[in-house]
Amino acid sequence: MNKHVRKLIGIPFAIAAACGAPTFANCPADGNGDGVVDGSDLSLLLSVWGQPSAYDLNGDGTTDGSDLAAVLQAWGPCETPAPTDGFTQVPFTHYIQFPWDLQLSDRYSLANGVHDFQVYSTDQPFQSGSTTQPRTEMRINNNYTSGVWQFEGDLFVPTGTTGVAVMQVFGGSTSSTSCQLRVYNGSLCYYTTPIMNNIHDTWIHVNVIHDANAHTVSVYLNGTFVRSAPDRGPATYYFKCGVYQQNNSSALMQAEWANIKVWSGPA
Question: How many CB atoms lie within 10 A of CB 74?
């Protein structure tokens, strides 16, 4: 189960409260784990009055008036844990890969904190003699083989762009990448599986967490968990973002990225 999502499965609420079943880590008053502190929690607290329970919020061994006060104070929806909770932001350096026969300014610009990446389907690869597709990408120098790492940034894809990878976790033993976020026909996809529709002409907040120890990749869009999948095996990994041509692409592929960050997480 993803560490940022905890929920009860198949446990009656009264039993869960009496037995001290797990709750949202940042919302202990939510004794039944449904994401909100409300009348259900109040009823459950009263049903276990004077006993040890999940509603013994001060840990004194008894569910009583002080715990009731804490539940009333926390009334309402629980705050959703941020994908970066428990992570530490780390500095990074980078360079831009772009068609080898052009100037960087022909396909890339940076203004007011927004990185603008462009590439045409007729462009050359980033190195002379390379057989890879055209790209204009930021290659982040965060090489790692273990640990938990996270890419964060804001993505904007204009109407007309399709058939392009806009973010990668590069590296894998069975494939050259362990994750690609691609754009196809107005949808953001995990490789070819859509994870958000109608993305053109709007900013999307993206978090990609790679647990290189457990070999899993998790994606959050606008703070909401959308997908987790295995990576492609042990390797030296790093993050990339920009535009990298895929099949059935538009003639011009463009993406903007802003507020790019790299985070290191707990083991």
Answer: 16
> Can you give the CATH number for the domain in which 27 is found?
1.10.1330.10
At which residue do the structure tokens 């941020």 appear?
82
Per-residue pLDDT reduced to its tens digit, 106-144:
999 999 999 999 999 999 999 999 999 999 999 999 999
Entry pTM: 0.76
129: left (phi over 0), alpha (psi -120 to 50) or beta: left
Q: Looking at the structure, tell me whether residues 69 and 106 fall in a common domain.
A: no
Domain assignment of residue 18, given as a range:
13-77
- Specify the pLDDT at position 59: 85
Q: Is there a contact between 75 and 38 (Cβ–Cβ < 8 Å)?
A: yes
Cα angle: 134, vertex 139, 144; to 5 degrees: 130
Instruction: Using a pLDDT cut of 70, give the percent of the chain over it.
Output: 90
Residue with token string 């640990």? 147
Output b/e per residue, 147-164; b: 16+ Cβ within 10 A.
ebbbbbbbbbbeeebbbb
User: Which H or E element spans position 167?
Assistant: strand 164-170
